[in-house]
Amino acid sequence: YVGERLRGTPILALDICEHAYFLDYGFDKLSVDVRSVVTIGSFDGVHSGHKVLLHSLKQMAERLGAESVVVTFDPHPRIAMGRAEGMGLLTTIEERALLLEREGVDRMVVVRFDEEFRSQSYDTFVRESLVARLGMVGMVVGYNHRLGRGNEGNYESLLPLAAECGFALECVGQHLIDGSKISSTVVREAMSRGDM
To answer: What percentage of the chain reaches a pLDDT higher than 70?
Structure first.
């Protein structure tokens, strides 16, 4: 699929970023000879907490001689699971792509968050999509990262898989500003109060 704005009409990848190759929808058309370091998440708003994670992503990619890749979702998981009552997104997929490219990320891959994806185990997703299709040689996760059916995939459960599949794994701690956590939810709440 081409990708749809949550507000507005479909837009081609060519219209989104300076470089058309930056954005991929799904894994089917990716080059089989790519080497990548991957992080996964919604990245709504690309706030300062995200930027700490992206810094680690780019550092590992440089160290391993690989592309830095963000894998994100459409629609947002909370929307897909019917848990988004009153939640407004900070950015569309297209805006997210622009922000991530400006942060120096090499590529963004958008995964359709549907029932088939939700039912997939983290083990299967990592092996068949990230390692086999993205050539993943490194992975960076946040302190509260969850992945796969039942949110079973986290840093601890990924460790033996990383050893078996041969990719580096790094966990980035919580980012605080003046003792307060930073998240997309916190940013949305602040904006709803007019606290800019």
So the answer is: 70
